[in-house]
Specification:
The structure holds 2 protein chains of 2 kinds.
Chain A: E1 2-8, E2 11-17, H1 23-30, E3 49-52, E4 55-58, E5 71-73, H2 87-94, H3 104-117, H4 123-129, H5 141-150
Parallel strand pairs in A: 1-5
Antiparallel strand pairs in A: 1-2, 3-4, 3-5
Helix pairs in contact in A: 2-5
Chain B: E1 5-7, H1 12-19, E2 24-27, H2 33-38, E3 46-49, E4 59-62, E5 65-69, H3 74-80, H4 86-93, H5 98-103, H6 106-112, H7 119-125, E6 129-132, E7 136-138, H8 139-142, E8 157-162, E9 167-174, E10 181-190, E11 193-199, E12 207-208, H9 210-218, H10 243-260
Parallel strand pairs in B: 1-3, 2-3
Antiparallel strand pairs in B: 4-5, 5-8, 6-7, 6-8, 9-10, 10-11, 11-12
Helix pairs in contact in B: 3-4
Classes of the chains: A alpha+beta, B alpha+beta.
The structure holds flavin-adenine dinucleotide and FE2/S2 (inorganic) cluster (2 copies).
Chain lengths: 161, 262
Amino acid sequence: MTKVTMTVNGKSVSAETEGRTLLSAFLREGLGLTGTHIGCDTSQCGACVVHVDGKAVKSCSVFAQDVAGASVKTIEGMANADGSLGVIQQAFQDHHGLQCGFCTPGMVMSAAALLAENSKPSEADVRHYLEGNICRCTGYHNIVKAVMAASGQDVSALAAE
Amino acid sequence: MHNFDFVKPASVADAVAALSTEGAQALGGGQTLIATMKQRLADPAVLVSLTGIADLQGVCMGDGGLHVGGATPHAVVAREAGKYYPALAHLAGGIGDPAVRNKGTIGGSLANNDPAACYPSAALASGATIVTNRRKIAADDYFQGMFSTALDEGEIITSVVFPIPEKASYVKFNQPASRFALTGVFVAKYAGGVRVAATGASNNGVFRWKAAEQALSANFAASAIAGLTVDDADMISDLHGTPAYRANLVKVLAGRAVSAAT
Ligand SMILES: Cc1cc2nc3c(=O)[nH]c(=O)nc-3n(C[C@H](O)[C@H](O)[C@H](O)COP(=O)(O)OP(=O)(O)OC[C@H]3O[C@@H](n4cnc5c(N)ncnc54)[C@H](O)[C@@H]3O)c2cc1C
Ligand code: FES
Ligand code: FES
């Protein structure tokens, strides 16, 4: 076992790992941060997306020891300091961007990565960026709407469908 | 997944030394290898991460064209190669999805040589040079059939050098579930002639369509290949497309790539 230290949601944390310990397992089993979901475990669905040094990655397809020392942000780090929902999370609630909620942590983390790169994305930009995030409930329209709204754009003209 | 020892050297020399141990294997972005290990189709005793080696990162112009470090992620090529080689940046920006592009590397893609991967077509159509810790390999000698390359055990791709074409374009017909290319064609026009490489089509992996190269070298217009046909004898057959469908796609996409080339 090797002790791995990294910064998760602003706090320095450590846990014992094997070579094969995935970042997703480090977060969920090592730290109890179960907001990061495992949908496929084969890098297809995006439910496990977190940020490593500001970049979206699929935590099911990264070894914990490979990101030792990095700064990681998970869905648990997305709320405001007072515990209220962050802007993107609130937009998902307001625009009905989730149903069962299983895909939501990954959707929110991918959306946050998009908005950090492109603060006013077009609808096409949002759809393109979320290509690696699969949702089996919503049909995507309200997710796209929520991300557009979170970027401060008027979404009243976007079809609800 | 079976367990293994994980090492992350900071230099190519240390990585080469680590790779000389029994059962050692290189790890690039892990976007192919980790899934393979989960299926127990790969079972390394030691994994040697190449992503901590500064010398293997980044893109810059140098002798012979654009140099891309062997462990450079697709997202970096998409962002930084555009001013030198727009078609290559476009290709990198169309691989998988943003999270895959943040991790997956050019060296991993070329070492893996998936028959539906995008980079092999760029390397072959550009007449790129695959540079390893031991030697330089011309793209024409490097690709040796699906999942097979000229790399020896423990050999590391340290960089890839792309001569800059006058015009080029990559057109990918997406396989929407996997986000790989169902079929993709890269066309590059150099002073010495045109090169055309197709991926996601042949059972033998990426290949050059030489009849089209000849026709396009004489006349760089989609109409120049309108009368040609691609032999479907060795084409991939799966639930997404028949051999005849893929052979036709090679021609259609090559025509589109010629029209779109900048
Ligand atoms: C959802 C998804 C969608 C994808 N879509 C596409 C797509 O559209 N087009 C496409 O081309 N690819 C696609 N890929 C594959 C992706 O580009 C991978 O990143 C790539 O094939 C492997 O690169 P890697 O750096 O992740 O390598 P790894 O998975 O780390 O390694 C792959 C192999 O290469 C070896 N290796 C790694 N680096 C080196 C090196 N520098 N020198 C020698 N050997 C090395 C490893 O030992 C291993 O055998 C997709 C992957 C996923 C998960
Ligand atoms: S669980 Fe990681 S991509 Fe699905
Ligand atoms: S809300 Fe159920 S999977 Fe997206």
